UniProtKB/TrEMBL annotation:
Function: Sigma factors are initiation factors that promote the attachment of RNA polymerase to specific initiation sites and are then released.
Name of the featured protein: RNA polymerase sigma-54 factor
One Pfam family named in its UniProt record: Sigma54_AID
Keywords: DNA-binding, DNA-directed RNA polymerase, Nucleotidyltransferase, Sigma factor, Transcription, Transcription regulation, Transferase
Residue ranges constituting the RNA polymerase sigma factor 54 core-binding domain according to the UniProt record: 77-257
Stretches assigned to the RNA polymerase sigma factor 54 DNA-binding domain: 265-413
Domain of life, per lineage: Bacteria
Family affiliation: Belongs to the sigma-54 factor family.
Amino acid sequence: MKPRSRISVHQTQRMALTTGLATSIRILRADAAGLSRYLEEAAAENPQIILTRPQVQDWIPRWKSAFASDAEPPEQQSAGPSLVSHVLALIENLRLSPAETRIAMALAEALEPSGWLGRAPSAIAAQLAVGLPAVEQVLARLQQRADPTGLFARNLADCLRLQAEEAGELDRAMRALLDRLDLLAKGGIERIAREAGLDQTELRQALGRLRSYDPKPGAAFEPFAAPVREPDLIAEKGASGWIVSLNRSALPSVSVAEGRGKGRAEARALIRMIEGRNATLLSVGQEILTRQTAALEAGLGALQPMTMAEVARAVGLHESTISRVVAGTAVDTPRGTWWLRSLFGKAPREGGPAAGALRDRLARLVAEEDPDHPLSDEALAAALAEGGAPLARRTVAKYRTMLNLPPAHRRRRRA
């Protein structure tokens, strides 16, 4: 049978990611600090863009009602600072040069919740277009001054090594263990002893000291707290309920220069994108906090189940747009500064509280426990069940891990 060629015509539709669309997406997902930097770069390239910067002032959590009266301030949601705010204070106290501060900020951005670096110093050096020795020098200063010791470690071995150095216990046996953590995890003490030429008794003594170190120093900080910086939104309670507004002091105002010149169309397009971004952010933020009024009134323990799909349907946007808007966006409330993304969550059990509310209750149970008799996962599950939130032990263990809370035996040892 002789094959035949056939020509057919098909009509398809697709969206091309143009430069304007890419810029719009970038603006939409930027927080106040990131958008300010982008606007400064755009103004430097286009003289038609005029930026009017807001009055510079240090942002502090707002206790307006408390400052205006003799009433006690409401209980702050976070028992301690976030890892980011702690690290920013550390960098400020080091009094680094502008070039060193730029490197230190990049290192801080690379920190993971564990307190370790999520990126290699070489990658950060390439990103900043600086030499690796300059990054290593700033990193060494941060590691030396960091409290708790182990912050800014490259990995687990580096984190434990920094703590061993501080304790004066970085002897030959400790070095042998740190160099062979993979074998140590498998219980290969005998093989480590043979390879290092050390006595097993000496290694086991070093192992006992090693177990007293903290493998995740970043876990000591409040996981839900947003960094102490200018928030993107402000939530205040008015006569008709909770009102969400843009924090105008966090962003410079943008206008087009007078007269004529090249770049005016681009400047006007940029202003339209920013206005669209602000309108979308305000609409999404209002919808989220309207659904989470109970959390605004009583704290994160009263979070209601909420998904991005539900918010997207309510405001008439795509779910991916909601995800972009809430990425890195903070809202200032009378109970502290919260990440918008942290307010989302499903209920582990149908009809029950949101997962975020359960994690908040779990964190409070651990914070209030007797240090000498910490609660096991089974006991934590029973305590949550008494509050009307029955959970399986494995779910409690998962939430505890998400909160960077160690198991009971390690909490007892740490106490």
